[in-house]
Design goal:
Oligomer: single chain
Number of strands: 9
Number of helices: 4
Structural class: alpha+beta
Largest sheet: 4 strands, mixed
């Protein structure tokens, strides 16, 4: 908690949640226009969530290294090409959490999909990009980073920000 001055000039007590990590989101896109979603139980809302690979990157870890680690840990995939496509503030009224999103292409399976850390029961599915986007727009996928990354990639595909063949496969 901090003693602060409100924009009105009045004294205010302000609560801030500080994070030790940055949030990482990775949208793996295969050449055929499919992506990988990760399904798992999420305690805060007590429900099952379908998401793109995500995780935390310690503040002292290189962002790209953190993204590469998260993709490998959750899917067993490695990517030849990485592009940062999203940098957003999460709940900026009460937290300092920053989220970074990467598009990962040139994918190869380098190891079996891992078992998780003993507390996770992760399921992985490979689905057409458009199916994932439609699920997000219908509200079946509600993880904000997943929704934001799918929308950003859709916009890039529509506006010429991705290679033509990949965009065509995604929008199919």
């Amino acid at each position: 908690e901090f003693d602060a001055v409100a924009p009105t000039g009045r004294p205010a007590l302000y609560g801030l949640v500080g994070f030790k990590n940055r949030a990482m989101a990775i949208l793996p896109l295969h050449e055929d226009g499919t992506t990988v979603l990760v399904g798992q139980n999420r305690l805060p809302f007590g429900d099952y969530s379908w998401e793109i690979p995500e995780g935390g990157c310690p503040l002292d870890e290189d962002l790209l290294v953190g993204a590469q680690r998260e993709l490998l840990e959750e899917t067993g995939l490695a990517a030849a090409d990485w592009q940062e496509i999203l940098r957003v503030q999460l709940s900026n009224s009460v937290t300092d959490e920053l989220a970074i999103g990467y598009l990962a292409t040139g994918l190869s399976q380098v190891e079996e999909a891992p078992e998780g850390d003993g507390t996770e029961d992760i399921v992985r599915v490979r689905v057409p990009f458009r199916e994932a986007l439609d699920a997000a727009m219908a509200g079946w996928i509600s993880d904000m980073l997943t929704v934001a990354m799918l929308l950003k990639a859709y916009h890039m595909a529509r506006e010429g920000g991705l290679p033509r063949n990949l965009a065509k496969a995604m929008l199919g």
